[in-house]
Amino acid sequence: CNPETVSTDYNTSDRLYFEPITLEDVLEIVRKEQPKGVIVQYGGQTPLKLARALEANGVPIIGTSPDAIDRAEDRE
């Protein structure tokens, strides 16, 4: 995550995390925050690649499903 590219406006978010976007770090944040789900479509390629692993770990994906992401990225 590049801190220069994210909004640091606390009027639009309750908390900001400046952690690497790895499965382990995201799962730790999910464990701490207990969200109803996560949106992976707005973070570029890295979170898109984590969608299936997050789903496999019981994290609900809000929006485009991991299957649909895989179909959309299939270049063949």
Termini separation (Å)? 30 Å
Oligomeric state: single chain
Mean of residue pLDDT values: 85
Order of helices and strands: HHH
The biggest beta sheet reads:
none
CATH topology: Rossmann fold
Q: How many distinct beta strands?
A: 0
| Proportion of beta-strand residues | under 5%
Number of helices: 3
Under the CATH scheme, which architecture would be assigned? 3-Layer(aba) Sandwich
Form type = globular
Radius of gyration, rounded?
13 Å
List the helices and strands and how they pair.
Layout: H1 23-33, H2 45-56, H3 66-73
Q: Can you describe what's shown?
A:
- This protein is an all-alpha fold and 76 residues long.
- It has one domain: 3-Layer(aba) Sandwich (Rossmann fold), CATH 3.40.50.20.
- Helices cover 41% and strands 0% of the residues.
- It contains three helices and no strands.
- The longest helix has 12 residues, at 45-56.
- The termini are far apart.
- The mean pLDDT is 85.
